[in-house]
Each structure stands twice: as structure tokens, then as C-alpha cells.
Amino acid sequence: MPYPTATPATWFVTGASRGLGLELVRQLLERGENVAATSRSTERLLAGLADVSTENLEPLELDLVDGAAVDSAVARTLERFGSLDVVVNNAGYGYLASVEETSDDDVRQMLDVQVVGAWNVLRAAIPHLRTARSGHIINISSILGLTTLPGWGLYSAGKFALNGMSEALAGEMAEFGVHVSIVEPGYFRTSFLTTGSLVLPAATVDAYPAIREMTRNHFDLQGHQLGDPVKGADAIIGIALAGKGPLNQLLGSDSYQYAQARIAALTADVEDGRALAMTTDHT
């Protein structure tokens, strides 16, 4: 079921202090919705919302990897607002390097934020949505959760994992009236391609000049991305209002083009391997 439109709905949004997350929270507050917004810095979150009323905001300074803290944050949301209608897993950051250049800490931190953090939020929220037999889970992935490019292996690993979990979750939630959406944006004109959001390896390997060039090109792209975050946040709200729609919702013409190319390449790959696949059954 879609969330109630006659009364304020309650949204739980992670990664809310910048980018699409911040714009989403801004628009929700302007609509009069109730919003529990998580960030590692509520100071930065509130600074980003200085020009909008925060009367219906519950700012939560939260490390999503801390499962007990996430449980407490969801409980605090329910205590204040009395309901939970839409959960948006948006927390994340970029990482651009070859697989060889990633450290153990890089890998663990990325998967902690992109996968473990989202999992903690879902485990805390799902019992309430399931009991209410309504609600919407929106996991913000990326077009790089459907396809990938050299240099994006670690980031895509986290997003591919989020997509896989989300697809399974959609099947699990269907009988309880809880809808699941995976949102896959392309490049949006946020701070994602800046040093504050795009992490680089501590040490690089000379063997990957193309990745160094890609890194420079991405920083140069900042401010010229095709995606409009205002329209993107509005689209996310529209998905929840509709309470239905495709499991995989692309955002941006670039995202659509990347997806089409991936579908064509995957189809060709599957057909190229068909003959060998058919030889491995018991006869």
C-alpha cells in the first residue's frame, strides 16, 4: 500500500546531510512530512536545512554500522512520530581505484557503509512495516549497481550487493504489502564528484594510467553532471506516493543508456555461452 497522503507520513532517510539525501529531506519537510534523518554530523545536516522549517525533523547523528544504535534510532523515530511509512537507504560515498589498489580497510569500510549499514536499517525497520502491512522501502543504489567500469570495482561491489539483497527483499515483503524499490541514478549534480565524497586509494600503481585519467575527468565533470538533484528527489517522493512501480527505477538519461548497453552486452554474453552451458547437465 502507498503511504498515507491525507496525514503526514513518516520517512526514515539515511545519508541525509548532502546530495540527493539532503534535497530529499528538504522537499519532504516543505511538504509537511515527518522526517527522521540520519547523518554522521547533525551539525552539517542542520546547516544544509537552514532555510527550511525543521519542526517535523528528527535529526539523528548515527553510525549505521552500529546495529544497536540503528535500533535505537528507529525506536526514537517511532516514539516521536508514532509510525514509520517510508525507509530510504541513501548513505554512501564513491571510491575510484583499481581492484589491486584497494586496501583491506578500504574494502571493509565500503561494504560496511553500503551493505551492513543498509542491512542494519532494514532489520530494525522491517518488523514495524510488516506488522502494519504497509510501507515502502527505497534503496538508493546506482547505475553502477547494474553495470560497472574499470576503476569502480569496489564501489560497484557494494552497490551490486545492495541490489541483490533488495531483489530478494522485494519478494519477501510482497505478501505483507510492503513495496521495495531500487533507485539507480546516473551522475547527478551533487558533491559526489568532489574530494569530500569521492575517495581515492592511499597508494596507486603505475600500471593504471587510464584510471588516473578517469579520476581527473570525473573531478572535471563536477558541476556539469546531467542529473538535477531537485528533480531526482521529487522523483523519489513520487515513487513512494505511487506505492508501486518497477523494482529497478533508473534516474537520468545517462543511467538509462548505461543500462541498455549492459542489457545488450549481457544478452550477447549469455547467448555466446549457451552451447557450453547445455553440456553440463546429467544425461
Explain what you see.
Helix 1 packs across helix 7 and helix 3 (67-81) runs parallel beside helix 4. This protein is globular. It has a seven-stranded parallel beta sheet with strand order 3-2-1-4-6-7-9, with helices on both faces. The longest helix is centred in the middle third of the chain and has 29 residues, at 104-132. The chain has 283 residues and is an alpha/beta fold. The chain has helices spanning 19-31, 42-48, 67-81, 104-132, 153-173, 209-221, 229-242, 253-272, 274-277; strands spanning 10-13, 34-39, 57-61, 86-89, 94-95, 136-140, 179-185, 198-199, 248-251. It has a single domain (10-271), classed as Rossmann fold.
In summary, what is this structure?
With 283 residues, the protein is α/β, with parallel strands linked by helices.
Mean pLDDT: 92
Biggest beta sheet attributes: 7 strands, parallel
Q: Tell me the overall shape.
A: globular
Topology order in helix (H) and strand (E) letters = EHEHEHEEHEHEEHHEHH
Attribute tags:
9 strands, globular, 283 residues, two-stranded parallel ribbon, Rossmann fold, single chain, alpha/beta, 7-stranded parallel β-sheet
Topology:
Layout: E1 10-13, H1 19-31, E2 34-39, H2 42-48, E3 57-61, H3 67-81, E4 86-89, E5 94-95, H4 104-132, E6 136-140, H5 153-173, E7 179-185, E8 198-199, H6 209-221, H7 229-242, E9 248-251, H8 253-272, H9 274-277
Parallel strand pairs: 1-2, 1-4, 2-3, 4-6, 5-8, 6-7, 7-9
